[in-house]
Amino acid sequence: MPHILLVEDDRPLAQGVADALAADGRTITVCGSARQARQAMESPIDLAILDVGLPDGNGLELCRELRLFSRAPVLFLTACDAEADEVAGFAAGGDDYIAKPFRVRALRARVDALLRRAVGDDIVERGGLRLDFAHADFTRDGVGIALSVPEQRLLRALVSAPGQTLPRETLTRQVWGLEAVEENALSVTVRRLRKKLGEGYIQTIYGVGYRWGTKDDR
């Protein structure tokens, strides 16, 4: 069943929403702060419901961070109904927007629509590879592959832009964000990923970066 991340600092509201969504058999992880949400985002999720205003940050920032490694749908909850706030939510990578107060039935309908739309978007199949990013389930010729979080983020970035050369700086930022890493961290991660996936999927564009594809794609 889908795993939903709910980030809302209003505890009664969060509990009401969680109870309503859990009634459909879904797993709901509730967080009351941006810090808790960042920890929860380390596990695979199928959809995120983010409050724009949080005591230690905001949902827009969390959405931008989530988009570095996941395409899980994002629904924003906000007390503001201004067009500028709606535009900001979509610009951050959100998929839908609902203003408080809202009816639980309306929220459930939007969640259902987003989950239906997302089915299949997080699964990539190529050759002997099957990559299910939504559930962190990766196989090669039917055999499971264990990938670290940086490896998953790098793989997601590459397969999301097939045939496109992504500069090293872009990939480093998408994998580690603003975190300081060693200069050769990207090269090491690429090498480990190639060993697990097999040769031929990740091309090196010398002096520039990497791209996803095979020699036949050139």
Provide key terms for this protein.
218 residues, alpha/beta, 5-stranded parallel sheet, 4-stranded antiparallel sheet, 8 helices, globular
Order of helices and strands: EHEHEEEHEHEHEEEEHEHHEE
Query: Percent helix among the residues?
Result: 25-40%
The biggest sheet, with number of strands, parallel, antiparallel or mixed sense and barrel status, is:
5 strands, parallel
Please tally the helical runs, counting DSSP H or I stretches of 4 or more residues.
8
DSSP E strands, number: 14
Span between N and C termini? 39 Å
Strand content: 15-25%
Q: What order do the strands of the largest sheet run in, or round the barrel if closed? A: 2-1-3-6-7
Low-confidence blocks of residues: none
Gross morphology is globular
Please tell me the overall pLDDT: 86
- Gyration radius, rounded: 19 Å
Helix vs. strand class: alpha/beta
Compose a concise summary of this entry:
The protein has about 220 residues and is an alpha/beta fold.
Please explain how this structure is put together.
This protein is α/β, with parallel strands linked by helices. 39% of the residues lie in helices and 24% in strands. It is built from 8 helices and 14 strands. The protein has helices spanning 11-22, 34-40, 59-66, 83-91, 104-118, 149-159, 168-176, 185-197, and strands at residues 3-7, 27-31, 47-51, 53-54, 57-58, 74-78, 96-99, 123-126, 129-132, 137-140, 143-145, 166-167, 202-205, 209-212. The strands form 4 sheets. It has a 5-stranded parallel beta sheet, with helices on both faces. Strands 8-9-10-11 form a 4-stranded antiparallel beta sheet, with no helix packed on it. The longest helix has 15 residues, at 104-118. The radius of gyration is 19 Å and the shape is globular. The mean pLDDT is 86.
